[in-house]
Amino acid sequence: MMAATPGGALLVLAVLLPVAGILVSFALGGRVAEKVTLALAPLGFALAWLIAMQVAATGAPIVYTIAGLPPPLGIALRADGVSAVMLLVAAVIVAAAAFYARAKFATPEGQGESRGALTFWLMLQAIWAALILIFLGGDLFNLYVALELLTFAAVPLVCIDGRPETLAAALRYLLFALFGSIIYLLGVALLYGAYGTLDIVLLAQRVAPTPVVWTAAALMTAGLIAKTALFPLHIWLPPAHANAPAAASAVLSGLVVKGSFFLALRLWFYVLPALPTAAPSAVLGTLGAFAAIVGSVLALRQARLKLLVAYSTVAQIGYLFLVFPLAAGGHAWSATGWSGGMMQVLAHAFAKAAMFLSAGLLAEALGHDQIAKFKGAARALPLTFLTLGLGGLSLTGLPPSGGFEAKWLMLRASIASGQWIWSLPILAGGLLAAGYVYRILAPALADGAVEIKAPPQRSREAIALGLAVIALALAFAPQSFFHFLEIGRPLAAGGAP
């Protein structure tokens, strides 16, 4: 039976903070919503930091049982090493997006409130709340609810300006997300019918490789890869992420797609570790390999910068799914594969958020984001292109960057495990990524002149640059950081869950 642990109240506060912000913002309007979001950002980071410190101090997950009722009667919140780190990442990127977005969605004194501003600040807080629930949730049905909240908060951000193309992109996103939700929920219902509980820890102790469990796992995985936009279910992502406002694109690409991926990790590494996973891991790894190659090739063909960056997300998501074959089981190389996969999550989140914010500044400054018309733009916008270059460095996997550390760890795991086949998409994807980053920088560094319609604010450039620097600084993460990521992983010690 799962019991509450010291520090559990921090988990409740982390969940309630953005929820309270949503209620206050909805009641008092868009002008207050902006201030509430900006005020809650440092508080959310502080709570995430305290949770991480508590997990590090005890070396074990923090648990809070709602109303004092342990599962299966009650619901538990749980923070382990991975979820504590993801709480910090979400707090940083949401805060960065919020401060960056003030230039577009602030409501100056003397002006009436706009629908777009209120929607943006409410949905940003809702996405943050949903992500916290996903990272802390210990029950598969409640994770489904959090995933739905995430979808219904993310879709309005795609079409917030009301243009026909953004409405079409949002509708396509919604249809894929609903398809994913339905089949995920069918899988959850099968597990509940078989075992009478949806608590992750209890299920991990009871599940066996029966036809019902395999069917549930297949349904839930298919639903989650549709929401994550894994190849070939990726077609909704590029138009959605490329047409949203830059601050929204940063959150969608840096965080939202990680929510459903995080649930896929929970499913296979925490709920189903007792199942033989060689075949499903190979399937997920193969889809990830195709995503890394196909997404990169499509990125190379894009004429618009934001579309290129969006297709790059499709490719980088592919690397994430290589963690399933490279971290499976309790082998010595599994920890290396797990560390590589988690580092890819973090490096991509920061690098991609930085690149989308920079792409937004570029579009505002030039009035377009056509790559062929960037000649001479690097001289006019040096900080913006420096950020794009540093973010691209991490995506390509060149040192020193978090992207390099992630791909290096994955390569080591693929060789140590004898699964050298997975090193091919990692290396090929890196070369292709270098190609599409070169496509951005080469014309910008060439001779030419561009007309600057609106110089970007230094503070907004600094926000984007700061995220890119974090993506690079991850390369210097100490070994103790990777040990922290192992806290709470069922097979981390190489034994049974």
From TrEMBL:
Residue stretches spanning the membrane: 6-28, 40-64, 84-103, 115-135, 141-159, 171-192, 212-237, 249-269, 281-300, 307-333, 345-366, 378-400, 420-441, 462-482
Pfam families listed in its UniProt record: Proton_antipo_M (PF00361)
Superkingdom as given in the UniProt entry: Bacteria
Location(s) in or outside the cell: Endomembrane system; Membrane
Domain NADH:quinone oxidoreductase/Mrp antiporter transmembrane as annotated: residue spans: 138-424
Alphabetized UniProt keyword annotations: Membrane, Transmembrane, Transmembrane helix
InterPro entries linked: CPA3_Na-H_Antiporter_A (IPR050616), NADH_UbQ_OxRdtase (IPR003918), ND/Mrp_TM (IPR001750)
Membrane topology term: Multi-pass membrane protein
PANTHER family attached to this UniProt entry: NA(+)/H(+) ANTIPORTER SUBUNIT, NA(+)_H(+) ANTIPORTER SUBUNIT A
Protein name, as recorded: NADH-quinone oxidoreductase subunit J
